[in-house]
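help with this record:
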Amino acid sequence: MGPLVSFRSAVQVLAGRGAWRVLVLAGCLSACSDDRNPVQPGPVTTFEPLLQAIFPGPLSAVPLGGVRQLTATARYADGTSREVSSDVQWTSSDEAILSIAAGGLATGRATGDVSVSVLFRGMRSGLKPIAVLPEGTVRLYGTVRELGVAGVRVSGARVEVVGGGPATTTDWLGSYALLGAPDGAEVRISKEGFEPVLLNVPPGAGQTPEWRALGADLSRLGERPGFSGAYTLEIAAACPAGSTFPSHLRVRTYSATLRDGRLQLAGASFVVDHQTGKVPPILAWFNDDGVQFHLQDAWDWNLYPSVMEDLGATLYAIAGVARATRTSTGLAGTLDGRFTLYEPQFWNVIDSCTSKSHRFTLTR
């Protein structure tokens, strides 16, 4: 409604109430409609979309002694994203290998692997692996397996650049990482009892050209002894001094059958999986010299534990990772894990014993 309409309406309403009142109202309406004093709009407030994710950029290697700019990107709930490299807090897992200045400027200090993460507005990114490498070299990585035997890795195999250069050995599961291999070099992979192989460093590709995958299959020279069969399993707790864990529960003995990557236990009142009605197996990974076992914990991925006995008043569980090597009578090694007594109804912990050196022995 315009000022003139407003004025006429007001005159009609106030007619007969006194001319002075009409004059005052007219003056007010005139002042309110004065275009020489327009109402100024206030500042507009804008809101940033909800932060959904933050992650470092694709850079996978920094040259030794060189400098590279790292980038970070924020992704929002509305589908937009923007670079925030100068607004985040950068973290390197080892500043002696890779240091990062404010804004994401990274300097390679020593040959090695690091993990990089960023913190932005209270949100921490995942870890981004970055290698520091001498110019003209690459990071080789891969797995060495035993030829013709499915799922068997070769531990302790030597991986070396022919003619001199860096060398390393495979871990328990046959994996390795070799930093500083010259691009295009010849690599020898060997272990006593196996036929060695010679391979060339493959060409780079994709967003991580300095990272080259190079696996190998080694052929065993003699007969391969098998691991499958029936055993007696003994697990003995190595509780620290002063532990209150009951002494009569520190050694457990079970019947065990190892077959097809699984160790199935019997000989005790085990808690069974309600869906299958069976005792969950212990998963096994083989290398040429031994076996790694994963004893499922009570809370791993909402699965049932591999070793849990019903003792009536309590539940008794053993969980962790065991590594056992071949012996003249079977397999022997250590369990990195925990012995635990639970209250049966709500699984509250009553007592526990944690160690990296519990004894784990399988005897044929």
